[in-house]
Amino acid sequence: MSRSRRLVGLLAEPDRLRVVSALVLGAATVDDVVTDTGLEARVVVDALDRLESGGLVVSGTDGTWVVLEAAFKHAAREDATPSTPTGEHAGEPGDHQPVLDRSIVDGRLVHLPTKRSKRLVVLERLAQEFEPGARYPEREVNGILRRFHDDTAMLRRYLVDEALLDRADGEYWRIGGRVEL
Description:
globular, Arc Repressor Mutant, subunit A, 2 domains, three-stranded antiparallel β-sheet
């Protein structure tokens, strides 16, 4: 299923749509969302759980929630790119496609190559999820990377070590990899 269909599915439920709207408009905690939407706390918590499992929101250790706005951009890009029958990674350059076909299956990282040159191909693909010039709090980086693999700390470390992302003061930003126009 495409990202855009998953997003539409997540937002098709009126309560979840209200929760996302409240978060986008500045609510940060469950109590804020309850106040802003008039929904019961149980309904808000259920909606947040579903939205988090769908990769649209992430929770912080401080009890705050944030919408992963990049999910909308990536869904739009995915739909704007014509699909081809030759595979999930058909549009990738040169010899990247076979490496990505073995490593990322149905949008999930199933294998991180041990050979550095092949691992860099996978990491560069992950770096494409981050907009050049944008700064991301760690929890948003984790939310983006969690769509690919649950070990977000490992992926963050590799991306920073290979100079694809940089970090300071709890924020990350993209500094490497190719830029798609």
